[in-house]
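Lab channel / #folding
Pinned by the channel admin:
"Please post every new chain as: sequence first, then the structure tokens as a reply. Keep commentary short and put observations after the output so the thread stays searchable."

First post following the new format, from NK:
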Amino acid sequence: MSTGPGALDEVAATVRPAAQAVRRSLPEIVLGFAILVTVLAGLALVGSAVDDRAIDANPATAEAEVLEGSNLFRTLVRFTVANGQAVVPEHGVAHPRGLAAGELVAVEYDVTDPELVRVAGRSTADGILPMALGVGVTWLLLGPLFVALRRRRAAAPR
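Reply from TO:
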């Protein structure tokens, strides 16, 4: 491959049509992103409700220790099931808001699948308001951006 001004012009000529296509489609990309956030939030709530239903169908309770290594996306806990087996669910505990490493917390789990575990007394309903706020903020920011980009594209000379 050659270097120098000729090579740079070739790269620019190759990239330019793709960049122009993205620029033309920017309003739809912004709208698609907002829709994606909305759908993912809805699916997260549906998945949480399905897990809650499974736990409610075969419930058991235990005391769990919140473990180090938790992050924004999962809170790790360790608890002992009725047969004495220690369980550390790979995906963490559902509805973990406000838990800190080393804390002991009551959990409810599905006897048939101890990997399905939630903080006792919490449910999908606890996540509806934060999800709705997140989706609302997404639309509050991206809705006007979508409208502005469409207007700008409509006003641009062809």
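NK: The chain has one domain: 26-155.
TO: also worth noting, Residues 5-57 form the longest helix (53 residues).
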